[in-house]
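Quick one:
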Amino acid sequence: MTEPLTEQRPMPGPVVYGYIRLLRSAPARRHALRDALAEYCRQHELQLAGVFTDRGGEAAFAGLLDVLRVSSTYGVVLPALEHLGPQQVAPQRARRITDVGARLLLVRGRRMVERRQFPPPQRAAGMATVSAFDAGRA
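Output:
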């Protein structure tokens, strides 16, 4: 029995977790955002291990940080930067994610981000943008 060549074996992509913040939203919106995260991961050969949904508390974000600390996760995928929270909270949350060694990947960029707080999004393949929030770059 012969094994397939390395190039012919399915290889899992880097593991990422999704994070969405939905304070008042219909189930259809939640499903659409999850589908957008899944499609982004499929296009960029990332393995979406799960999606944390914040409904206004800290539990979902705390759970995300916990899983980032105990696993070798490549990054966190967000529909847009606004999903990290209000303007006064988002930069702190971004730092907390990058401090554990994960990257922030955005399906679409944010228009009103102050340049000194976050680097500008870099164009990736297709319509999506990827922002480099590595701790050393931010």
